[in-house]
Amino acid sequence: MPELPIGLLRTFVITAQTLNLTAAASQLHRAPSTISMQLNRLESLVDTQLLVRGQYGVRLTPAGEQLITHAHQLLNLHDRILGPFHNVDIAGKVRLGTHDQYATRTLTPILEAFVLSYPQTQLEVTCDHRPQHLASLVNEGQLDLALVGMPAQSEGGQRLQPDELVWIRSERHDVHKRDPLPLAVFVEGRFHRDSASLALQQTDKAYRIAFISQSRAGVLAAVRAGIGIGVIPRSTLEPGMIIVETDLPPLPKTDTRSSSQSSPTRPRNVSRKPSGKVHNSRHLAKPPYPKQTQPPRKAERPRRLSDNTQPTANHPSLAVFCAVLR
What is the topology classification, in CATH, of domain 162-251? Predict the structure, then answer.
């Protein structure tokens, strides 16, 4: 029976997540041709077609759907086995603040990879729907890092990804044709809601607030039920929802940004295991830091934060997490 290399399974999983060879190649830092060759090799090992390549991307075959679940389980087990033996010299606490639109989607594989790769660190995550509030907690030292959506022209933080707000509706309800237009929005003061109201007022489009929630889950539940139109970043669109691009005014551009107490730096003088190898979970967008070029040093006790020291971006665990987010 042939053995399935872990590297090929990681390539398959990333490709299945992105449904695009170019995007998968970017995440894995390889050429698209290399990704294609690895997928072909995996298909030859299992002796069946796993992906259908097309002009606009790829899609999983029934066999690919069957393999993806097992591949996730095997990769998680593999990383759990190796995690305790790698990066044991990086320890401390990272306090992360974010919106639930990231916590339930974008951050899931990153958080998983971080916990598996750095088992000695403590990760605390705070979710809040107010980006400015999270940024203020960073400035006050109550959070080390915040991942938030901000207006494209605003200042502060490190820009990670450009985005834009879009109008969305349920694919089962033509709620966008109602007059006045019903909106399902966050509470007052949120950039999403304020942007929607301003855009409609500037075009004299009649509207009413039909549903208010402090959480993304609540807003999306109202949209799915056909209670109203929602406003979310384009990158966070979920299945069962349609972007409304006609008869409604355009919405502002946004950015996904990270905000930290100081500019993130990479860990320095952190001892590695005598083998000199650095574990790199392929779930990460980038390796946390470059492989060692100096001779391996004798392993030391893990570096920990003292009880009376506040974590900053210069601590190894936080620096690694900043690098992961980039």
Answer: D-Maltodextrin-Binding Protein; domain 2 (3.40.190)
Q: In this structure, how many other beta carbons lie within 10 angstroms of the beta carbon of residue 261?
A: 18
User: Which tops the pLDDT comparison, 324 or 37?
Assistant: 37
What residue spans define the domains of the chain? 6-83, 86-152+258-325, 162-251
CATH 3.40.190 fits 86-152+258-325, yes or no: yes
Q: What percent of the chain has pLDDT over 70?
A: 76
pLDDT of residue 224 exceeding 70, the answer is yes
CATH fold for domain 6-83: Arc Repressor Mutant, subunit A (1.10.10)
Distance of alpha carbon 184 from alpha carbon 193, whole angstroms? 9
Handedness of CA 116, 322, 309, 305 (dihedral sign): positive
Say yes or no: do domains 86-152+258-325 and 162-251 share a fold: yes
| pLDDT on residue 119 | 74
Distance (Å, rounded) from C-alpha 281 to C-alpha 63? 25
Token output for 250: 């355009």
Q: Pairing relation of β-strands 158-170 and 207-213?
A: unpaired
Average pLDDT, stretch 158-185? Answer: 90
- The DSSP secondary-structure symbol of 140 reads T
- Mean pLDDT calculated for residue range 102-118: 74
CB pairs under 8 A, 24+ apart, for 266-269? 266/319, 266/323, 267/90, 267/316, 267/319, 267/320
For residue 322, name the pLDDT band (cuts at 50, 70, 90).
very low
